[in-house]
Amino acid sequence: MNIYDLIFYLFAIITLVSAVFVVTSKNIVHSAFNLLFTFFGVAGIYALLGADFIAVVQLLVYVGGILILLLFGVMLTNKITNVDLRTGTIHIVPAAIGVGMLWGALSAIAYKTNWIKIDSPIPNSTAPFLGRMLITDYVLVFELLGILLLIALIGAASIARREKE
Amino acid sequence: MDFISLFASLKFIKPEITISITLLLVVIFDIIFNENKKIVWLITLFGVFIALIFTSLNLLVEGYAFSPVDGSHNFGLLTLDSFGSFFKVIVLVSTLLILYFSNNSNEIINTGKRQGEYYALMLGMLLGMLFMTSASDLIMVYLSMELLSLSSYVLAGFLKLRDRDSEASLKYLLYGAVSSAFMLFGISLIYGLTGTTNLYLINLYLQAPQINYIPFALASIMIFAGIGFKISSAPFHFWTPDVYEGAPVAITAFLSVASKAAGFALFIRLLKTGFVLRSNEQGMWILSDIFDWHSLLIFVSILTMTLGNFSALWQNNLKRMLAYSSIAHAGYMLLGVAVLSSQGVVAVLIYFFFYMLMNIGAFFVVSIIADKYNSEDIHGYDSLGYKNPWLAAAFSIFLISLTGLPPTAGFIGKLYIFIALVDSNMIAVAVIALLNTVVSLYYYIRVMKHMYLVKPAENTETFSTSPSNLVYLILLSASVLLLGIYFSPVVNLAKQCVGILGL
Amino acid sequence: MLQVGLTHFLIVSTALFSLGIYGVVTRKNAVMVLMGIELMLNSANINFIAFARYGNFGNGGQLVALFVIVLAAAEAAIALAIVLNIYKTFTNVNVDEIDNLKE
Q1: From CA A13, how far away is CA A45, in angstroms rounded?
Q2: Does residue C1 fall inside a structural domain?
Q3: Contact A77, C83 (CB under 8 A)
Q4: Which residues of A make CB contacts under 8 Å with B?
Q5: What was the pLDDT predicted at A81?
Q6: B191 and C34 in contact by Cβ < 8 A?
Q7: Dist. CA B430–CA A5, nearest whole Å
Q8: Has residue C101 got a pLDDT over 70?
Q9: What pLDDT band is residue B503 in, cutting at 50, 70 and 90?
Q10: Tens of pLDDT along B130-173?
Q11: Which of B77, B185, B189, B80 has its CA nearest to residue B138?
Q12: CB B352 within 8 A of CB B323
């Protein structure tokens, strides 16, 4: 067991334990803060897989953007000062059994399947290659995502803006 | 670095480029002309029209666009062919019809200055649908579907001051996001199994014998969850009635026709390009044995049409009834796909062309009545035959056509589906579909009973429809009737479009 | 067994996916459901990157993950706007209580 494996187990445990807290915590603010550790752990896993650029983007966009957005959502949709932030759950037991079985099946599939495996060294920096692919092979997707963000901007502003009654 | 292949690809996406430019113009002109939204509407109409001209001119063009610049293979992110162009025509024509519709629906007009955003989001939806019809890479498939979804989540709840709109939009968002997350996980499994996201390369990979049956089946089901959600097939249909009832009528009509057409185009291309190994002499597809699409599709389509038809029986809200009826129609069309032959695909294309005309027409009548009485309840249609004979006549034609009775276009659409079923020895399935049609007769006729057999009260006022709306309705209902008798142009076009693909 | 390989990463991603589904089906609060969806998207991303790394598929997998992150941000923005609007209308965001559209 070398240092790489140890770091993997560390990040895997951070990710999964905090994810368990995210979905089970009664307090929605606790869930949101646990989500921070999940995203962080996932970023670590990306880094272990040699995806350095994606790991940084994960931290910037998920932790810096999406999580803040979700926290705003929590704050703006709960009366923090007088009502507690507990949120209800429904049919926990059947869901836990069903999801447990699903995980068992999925991980059995992951274990049994002959995935394509070709030995290759961990690449050094990937950012230049990703940048080049963004403006060549995947330039259409890049432009499409630009339009998608514009649409998201228009849509979100259109829905969330307060109307003069 | 060699960018020539990228520049060469640009000529394949002229309609998409046109729509993107129109979208930007709409955003700019929405700011400049803050008061008069007619200009924004005209720009949208013009842009969609230009895109339609580009598509019609390139109807028979085929090729791969945006293939890798290093030339490792020729297949690209997009595949242009007449099959996709046929669906593009359907999507663009229905957008034109919906644009007129929106401009004459009080729900949309009353949003006032927000109309600019409405048309911008509609163009976003349209762009997503255009890319869906030609996407041949799973990444492109996923992202174009998301572009369509994000815009339609907002549009479904566009009248945000009305409770049921907000509710529709929340439900659509949550169900849609979950189903697309499933789809993404399925795509990731396919990527792990084959090492690529390009449908043609996946097909090449599947030509060799496979041992990993279970992960392929799991991935196929997960991807079908995402697409099944878009075409509202059972068991992913449960959002449809709520969203269709809550959304503005124009958007309901748009979702039920255009977004479904794009979903079907995507699904057929995915199936044909990804999983079909070859065709035999009769034009039947031989699928890779990794997943039994045939049984799944037959099961799902029968379930879809039965659930749709039986739930429609008890609906008093016309919008909700038409929502269930559109689920049932998705079931009939899925049967056409389940035949798994080029004949079945031709039947789906024909069906869709007619379905577009009759469904938009029916929703337009619902919109006129909703504008007048502020409700979509079936009692709003009581004695409509006396109050406004033209409107009632047009609505009757659409309803008869939706049932699939001669001499309307709906009959021809169903006929081709049934012929395809019988030709591939699926007699039992055809009988079930036929029985379903009989069930559907009940709820369509029920509306006509309310229109003609409820005696008008003593002092019933008649009301008239504006001349332009009347022309629109006559145009749609006349084409439904005319295409029911003289249908060979559409049939020939569909056959030509599928034939060139070499399906 | 303890030597970390593709299977280990896949087991983490499938666990994350299952937890995401668990969050989606058990939580009533719409914001919580969105958090579950984010977990599901993250698990798919781990899959893409792990497959690309161990199968030596090139950088395509990482690029897909990048696209999905962008998309998740856009989706979160739209979703939060819709949830805020729901809150203004219904004064709560519990999915099971927002149920007027039924026969």
Answers
A1: 11
A2: no
A3: yes
A4: 106, 109, 112-116, 132, 136-141, 143-145, 147-148, 150-152, 154-159, 163
A5: 46
A6: no
A7: 58
A8: no
A9: very low
A10: 999 999 999 999 999 999 999 999 999 888 778 888 888 988 99
A11: B77
A12: no
What average pLDDT score do residues B465-487 get? 91
Containing domain of residue B108, as a range? 1-270+285-291
Q: What is the longest distance spanned by two Cα atoms in chain C?
A: 57
> How many other C-beta atoms can be found within 10 angstroms of the C-beta atom of residue B434?
13
The reply to whether B62 and B192 lie within a common domain is yes
Residue C27 belongs to a domain: yes
- Interface ipTM above 0.90: yes
As a CATH number, domain A1-91 is 1.20.120.1200
Average pLDDT across chain B, whole number: 89
The per-residue pLDDT for range A63-92, each reduced to its tens digit, is 888 999 888 888 887 754 444 455 666 778
Mean pLDDT of the region A121-140: 86
B387 has a pLDDT exceeding 50: yes
Evaluate whether residue B324 is within a structural domain.
yes
How many whole angstroms separate alpha carbon B288 and alpha carbon B275?
6
Q: Chain C neighbours among A 78-97 (CB < 8 Å)?
A: 87-92, 95-96
What DSSP character marks residue B311?
H
pTM, to two decimals: 0.94
B314: buried, middle or exposed (CB in 10 Å: 19+, 13-18, 0-12)?
exposed
**What are the C-alpha distances in Å from A23 to residues A14, A42, B181, C88?**
14, 16, 17, 25
For the stretch B306-340, pLDDT in tens is 999 999 998 889 999 999 999 999 999 999 999 88
Please indicate whether residue B253 or residue B212 has the higher confidence score (pLDDT).
B253
The DSSP call for residue B277 is E
Q: Do A141 and C2 touch (CB under 8 A)?
A: no
Instruction: Tell me, yes or no, whether B253 and B310 share the same domain.
Output: no
Contacts of A141 in chain C (CB under 8 A): 67
What is chain B's length? 503
- In Å, what is the CA distance from B306 to each residue of B169, B311, B398? 26, 8, 21
Give me the domain span that covers residue C62. 6-90
B357 burial (CB, 10 Å; 0-12 / 13-18 / 19+) is buried
Question: Do B251 and B341 belong together in one domain?
Answer: no
Chain C residues with CB inside 8 Å of B316's CB?
A: 103
Residue C42 maps to a domain:
yes
Cβ within 8 Å, pair B161-A163: yes
- Residue B279 belongs to some domain of the structure: no
- Residue C41, in any domain of the structure: yes
Q: B336 near B297, Cβ under 8 Å?
A: no
What is the per-residue pLDDT for B140? Answer: 93
Residue B277: inside a domain: no
Tell which wins on pLDDT, B40 or B281.
B40
Could you give the 3-state DSSP secondary structure of residue B33? coil
- Residue whose tokens read 């977990």: C39
Tell which residue, B107, B377, B158, B353, has the closest CA to residue A161: B158
Measured distance CA(A156)–CA(A69) in Å, rounded: 12
Partners of residue C27 in chain A, C-beta under 8 Å: 23, 87, 89
Q: Is residue B11 part of a domain?
A: yes
Q: Please tell me the total number of residues recorded for chain A in this structure.
A: 165
Mean pLDDT of chain A: 86
Yes or no, beta carbons of A110 and C31 under 8 Å apart: no
CATH number at residue C35: 1.10.287.3510
The number of C-beta contacts closer than 8 angstroms across A and C is 228
* Tokens 């459901």 belong to residue: C33
Residues near A86 by Cβ (< 8 Å), separated by ≥ 6?
A26, A27, A28
For chain A, report the end-to-end CA distance as a whole number of angstroms. 66
B449 and B390 co-located in one domain: yes
According to the model, what pLDDT value does residue B425 have?
87
Is C39 close to A8, i.e. CB distance below 8 A? no
CB contact under 8 A, A49 and C53: yes
Give the count of domains, chain B. 2
- Cα B18 to Cα B28: distance, rounded to the nearest angstrom: 15
